[in-house]
């Protein structure tokens, strides 16, 4: 069975929104990955659910790769560029007080003005970075 066109992103968005809603309604927690990771690393009081949540993300990726191995492609960029980009994203999440999942999915769903400002900022910055990377590194970004 192949899911294509607009169905795959629609299904993915529904699953993400459902999981974020379940965590908020069931545990009163926002599904912001950077905050969950920071709490798991720092040994927060409620570390167990954080580690379980992160393990679920990794397990979902492994299952996805086994079920549909051709669905995810390797990065066209060298590993060093990907690592630097990841570190910059991490710094940005600390400066912005959250990440795309915390602000973009959960914060906007709660009608948070702070999350709207953060989402507009990281989406605009991401678009600008993609244009600059495309010009400097060539090809698609």
How would you characterize this protein structure?
- The protein is built from six helices and no strands.
- It is an all-alpha fold and 141 residues long.
- The protein has one domain (7-137).
- Helix 2 crosses helix 3 (47-67) and helix 5 runs antiparallel to helix 6.
- The longest helix is centred in the C-terminal third of the chain and has 25 residues, at 113-137.
Would you kindly provide a brief summary of this structure?
The protein has helices at 7-27, 33-42, 47-67, 79-95, 100-109, 113-137. It has 141 residues and is mainly alpha-helical.
Question: Which tags fit this structure?
Answer:
74% helix, mainly alpha, 6 helices, single chain
Secondary-structure element string: HHHHHH
Beta-strand share of residues: under 5%
What's the gyration radius in Å? 17 Å
Instruction: Estimate percent helicity.
Output: over 70%
Uncertain ranges: none
Question: What average pLDDT do the residues reach?
Answer: 84
Structural class: mainly alpha
Number of helices: 6
Shape: globular
The description of the largest β-sheet is: none
For the terminal residues, how far apart are their CA atoms? Answer: 29 Å
The count of strands amounts to 0
Number of domains: 1
Secondary structure elements and their pairing?
Layout: H1 7-27, H2 33-42, H3 47-67, H4 79-95, H5 100-109, H6 113-137
Helix pairs in contact: 2-3, 5-6
């Amino acid at each position: 069975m192949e899911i294509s066109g607009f169905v795959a992103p629609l299904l993915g968005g529904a699953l993400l929104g459902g999981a974020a809603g379940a965590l908020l309604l069931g545990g009163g927690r926002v599904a912001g990955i950077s905050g969950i990771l920071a709490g798991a690393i720092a040994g927060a009081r409620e570390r167990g659910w954080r580690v379980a949540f992160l393990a679920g993300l990794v397990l979902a990726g492994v299952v996805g790769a086994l079920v549909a191995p051709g669905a995810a492609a390797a990065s066209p960029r060298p590993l060093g560029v990907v690592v630097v980009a990841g570190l910059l994203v991490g710094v940005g999440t600390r400066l912005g007080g959250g990440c795309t999942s915390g602000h973009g999915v959960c914060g906007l769903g709660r009608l948070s003005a702070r999350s709207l400002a953060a989402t507009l900022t990281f989406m605009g910055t991401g678009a600008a970075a993609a244009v600059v990377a495309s010009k400097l590194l060539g090809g698609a970004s």
